[in-house]
Amino acid sequence: MSAPLHASAALAALVLVAAPLTATAQVNSFAQVERGRYAVATGNCEGCHTAPGEPSYAGGRGLETPFGTIYAPNITFEPETGLGRWSKDDFWRAMHEGKGPDGSNYYPAFPYPHFTKMPREEVDAIYDYLATLEPVRKEKPENELPFPMNQRLSLSVWNWMFFEPGVYQPDPEKSAAWNRGAYLVEGPGHCAACHTEKNIAGGDKASEHLKGGQLDNWSAPDIRGGEGGGIAHWSEDQIVEYLKTGRNEHTAAFSSMAEVIEYSTQLMLEDDLRAIAVYLKDLDSDARQPADRPGEPVMTAGAAVYFDNCSACHVADGSGVPRIFAPLSGSGKVNDPDATTVIRVILEGARAVPTKAHPSPLSMPAFDWKLSDEQVAAVASYVRASWGNAAAPVTADEVAALREALQPTVQ
Amino acid sequence: MARKLPPVDVVLVGFGWTGAILAQELTDEGLEVLAIERGAWRDTPTDFPTTTAPDELRWYWRKEMFQNNSRETLTFRNNRGQTALPMRRWGSFLVGEGVGGSGVHWNGQTWRFLPSDFVAASHNIDRYGPLPEGMTVQDYGVTYDELEPHFDRFEKLCGIGGKAGNLNGRIEAGGNPFEGWRSAEYPNPPMHMTFSQNQFARATAELGLKAFPGPSANMSRAYTNPLGCQLAPCTYCGFCEKFGCGNYSKASAQTTILPVLMKKPNFTLKTHNEVLTITLDKSGQRATGVRHVDLEGNEYEQPADLVIVCAYALGSTRLMMLSGIGEIYNPATGEGLVGKNYCYQVMSSAEVFYEDKYTNGFVGAGALGMAVDEYNGDNFDHTGLGFIGGGYIANWTTNARPIETHRTPEGTPTWGSAWKKAVADNFLKSTSVGAHGASMAYANNYLDLDPTYTDVYGRPLMRMTYDFTPNDMAMSGFLTERVREIAELMGGREIKLNPREGPYDSMPYQTTHNTGGTIMGTNPTNSVVNRYLQSWDVPNVFVMGACVFPQNAGYNPTGAVAALAYHAAEAIRTQYLRSPGPLVQA
Description:
Helix content of chain B: 10-25%
Number of domains of chain A: 3
Helix content of chain A: 40-55%
Strand content of chain A: under 5%
Number of domains of chain B: 1
Distance between the termini of chain A: 64 Å
Shape of chain A: globular
Number of helices of chain B: 12
Number of strands of chain B: 24
Number of helices of chain A: 19
Low-confidence stretches of chain A: 1-25
Oligomer: heterodimer
CATH architecture of chain B: 3-Layer(bba) Sandwich
Largest interface: A-B, 24 and 24 residues
Structural class of chain A: mainly alpha
Order of helices and strands of chain A: HHHHEEHHHHHHEEHHHHHHHEEHH
Structural class of chain B: alpha/beta
Strand content of chain B: 15-25%
CATH class of chain B: Alpha Beta
């Protein structure tokens, strides 16, 4: 027998053995897998389920919560360490009810309170897509949670208090675009996970919905786009541009939002981004209370620090260079009542997300080694009270506390 | 014993401007490209952020921006009668090291050579008769018309600001009327000029000269290049030459190519590895790859189908010598070509001091200036002048960096309280007009391997034998007189002339425009590489950089270096890959 014939005989045997699997593969049509790939993008699964420098979706990334560090599991279909033995029903239960195959509760760091809004077909498509990924063997590190947070039973109480399973129900009074946007924002997009203030138990404060939150020493700004909202001055087009390219006339994305744009929104269809914009622009808020202006000595000191260190990029009048160096005038982050992000960016610098549209990772350098707590407080107070901005002053103590919190912990 | 690594399609030796250009072009072609860089990874926010970029002491005076010459340097002498000694501290030129190469610390003056510069030998012989004894000027083997699209490409990559003087053959007001035709206007408008440039424009107009804005790689406005990379408007801080730009305002590999290139799966960069030699097969006519060494001294064999040398003019020439590709030039016999036609740049200037006008030189940028081109190349009749070539004359306000900048009038003591007072009195009230003179090749100016001194790996250092030539001195004398005429009309209280005087001194900073050594040309008897920068001897080796210039024109070289690199890349993409072998038959 010649070698090629031998090879094809072996191939035939392989096909026979693999026949039942082939049947499954046929069900997972290209369209179904692509639907799943897109659904995964809408939920930014890759962002949390990928550790830096490790294979995508193999988990191991730690999410810092006020209660401790929770690690994202491996969601490739590796049988021992991933989802390889899960059925579609198991996967649905996880996404819809927040429970593992053994009935145990997940921590809501996994945003099932949002994913529950996704319909079964969408969740099945995600399952089918994840099944096509190269399986990676990778154990999930143990969560670092103190008692009683490490008792998963306590989560039943949490679920009873804060969680209501149920697929998104469209509002017939609203347009199709609004409903699509609401679904994406409240469902897979899980925007509230960062942008809504939490109660003491880590549940969303309903009255503060999308008015800004704090996570992992970052403050996420108010993203309500209606009257009185944090991005009331953004147009629909500007919201779409921001989500698509990571930049718009007002700002550039960095830190956690950089990930959201990199793995999620820049991959989404423009119609969907527009739907998100339509929904956000419909969320009105009460007008903010004007904040106290810093005293003149602080403004004078802040202006001096600003002109020496910041004005080359952000320009003397805070107008920045749109899409390159963030304008500070009118910035949602600068005007956030919670100054954490402003202080942190001055201390650590920031790196604008490189996207397909804007590949340059334009960065601001760190000033922690150069400016004292008093200087950081003065310049932060100055930018928060200049050029139409009207947010409360920052104190040197706040700067010192954040500086301390950002120190790398010695293992 | 060197460890053998898996083969790649292309290995690039050095990762500055030309390395980044070639990597971007050849990865687009689908090739697996590896760049090997002896220095470190460098990027704006990590290595020269605004908070440390303007550190004059660190970057320039303590030479942190440049090649570490305790590991490798050159030896230098003025002529063959002397014994060359190692340059233990950079002076007249500043060789780069690390990702981005010297293109990180350039000023950004981005010129096109004149059409006649590419045919300097035949053009001048036609017009003025035979070249003088000892002058070895020759044609490039490529014409301006062939390079035009590649100049254009580089200008768009960088976002060069300027004003066209010749748009498709039509002379445009406000631009350089002598330049070769351009297929398009500059992608950005000129920089904002200052008082000094306005005085220069007025003075040159009075003399009947046509001043135009210097072509600038410092951004005159926010710019997004064709790859999508973003550059920010220049802040005129004056820390360009000798410094990295912290504001993303100067075109460099980092700001124009790397954000896109570094994400490509078919591109790999290896830093802190030095290529020791290009390896050849037994025939000596085919490169098999390179041998390189890491910082721990481990050696590697890197097989590759194509080796492209992008290691700056001096490094590339030396690597060709150390690899035994071609014969090293010997001025005594005229034999050999590698190392021949080393050229430089012949600079002179005049300083202008004002009594009551502020020039505010601290508002500067590397390529902020106005220039005239009447006395460059063959833009004027050289009959009876005793030299060929010329240079542009410009008023740049590149900087007023406090340690470096201390213009003082004629007769000021060089130290002490009178000197200090003069520096203080004139710091804000002075400017300078410079001539950027060409450098014509002579048989006695050359590069070879030093017989005595070696680098950290025991390889011979390259030896530079160079002095200003009779052509240089006559040309510079002529240009300096033109500089004087202009300076005197700029409305100052007094001027001070700084003529170029020989012999060439390797210590005072002049320019980092080292050219020649692996010159290009029309056939293997007059050149090391052909018109596509391909080695005549080993056709799977290409050499990029100003080392291929047969002689240097009266302009800064980066524009021409990049255009030649794009021209070579196009030939590799469209011709060489289809049929690997010599692109020009000898």
